[in-house]
Amino acid sequence: MTLRDFELQIPLGRITGLRNDNDGTRVIALHGWLDNAASFVPLAPHLPGVHLVAPDLPGHGASAHLAPGAEYTSGVAVNAVLDIADALGWQTFSLLGHSMGAGIASLVAASVPERVQRLVVIEALGGLAETVERTADRWREAIAAARALPGKKLRVFSDLVAPVRARMQANQLSEPAARLLVERGVRAVEGGYVWSSDPRLTLPTPQRLSEPQLARLVAGITCPTTVVYADPPQTYFPEPLRTQRAQLLPDGRLHVIAGTHHLHMEDPVAVAGVIADVLRG
Q1: Total count of domains within the chain
Q2: Of these residues, 99, 111, 196, 197, which one is catalytic?
Q3: Is residue 184 part of a domain?
Q4: I want to staple 54 with a disulfide (CB 3.0 to 4.6 A). Which of 29, 34, 77, 135 is the partner?
Q5: What is the pLDDT of residues 221-248, one digit of tens each?
Q6: SS3 assignment for the chain
Q7: What is the CATH number of the domain that holds 245?
């Protein structure tokens, strides 16, 4: 299954990505934070019968950044996914998401149940919660970071060795997986390369939903849902929380596979073994 580049326009601007030309089940694949569409390159060949469209989400890859002064929020992300589906002419579709993309996919499925046929999430479900007690601290941290960002300059890499090594260390990625993400996640400038992602993506969001609110959203996902977690779990989504979230799904199935956070890139055969038939319907 060969993936090719594509480009389309949505209200916020240009969206780039990778897609195949299959006539199978329509699936929009959403990558993780600071990743890009290349996240699904290793998995795609193991998903026969799937018409896969993997966009670079706004601010990632070569897709448009939000306008100056705008913020990257869950609502913006959900509407961007729906705008992408509309631009494709897809009234109904299935969703495949990894990490941040899994959180976004969860919110889309809960928000427009009439449009999402099936949901497959890898290494996230719902999103990251915050306690009420941390509200003021979170706002202070977020605003301080946003005010400081304009003065920061992008680091220029003379070649791709350093950014590939950085991704390997930060995400426990193999060199081939890290290189896939880096090659799609940089742009050429005088003297070398810089990350192409919007620096505002690194800012903390001032407001997150509480755990009870996220629980209600997960419980509102009515389509058949498959959840895939890596073992051991990530510190920010620990046990028993992540299993408790999955148990809230009205029609959910949970699979745990030994591996790292990017297990869909590092062990695509194992992941495809539990999701391929689901996505084909």
Answers
A1: 1
A2: 99
A3: no
A4: 29
A5: 999 999 999 999 999 999 999 999 999 9
A6: CCCEEEEEEECCEEEEEEECCCCCEEEEEECCCCCCHHHHCCCHHHCCCEEEEEECCCCCCCCCCCCCCCCCCHHHHHHHHHHHHHHHCCCCEEEEEECHHHHHHHHHHHHCCCCEEEEEEECCCCCCCCCHHHHHHHHHHHHHHHHHHHHCCCCCECCCHHHHHHHHHHHCCCHHHHHHHHHHCEEEECCEEEECCCHHHHCCCCCCCCHHHHHHHHHCCCCCEEEEEEECCCCCCCCCHHHHHHHCCCCEEEEEEECCCCHHHHCHHHHHHHHHHHHHC
A7: 3.40.50.1820
> 53 has which bridge partners?
19, 28
Asked if the model's pLDDT at residue 1 lies above 80, the reply is: no
- CA–CA distances in Å: residue 154 to residues 57, 58, 168, 189, 215: 20, 19, 20, 11, 38
* Strand partners for 4: 19
Range of the domain at 105: 4-130+209-280
Is 106 designated active site?
no
- Cα distances from 188 to residues 23, 159, 184, 201, 267, in angstroms, run 35, 10, 11, 20, 31
The answer to whether residue 166 sits within a structural domain is no
Is 155 within a domain? Answer: no
- Under a CB-based contact definition with an 8 Å cutoff, are residues 120 and 109 in contact? no
Backbone angles phi, psi at 271, to 5 degrees: -65, -45
| Residue 10 domain-assigned (yes or no) | yes
pLDDT at position 210, please?
97
Region 191-197: mean pLDDT is: 97
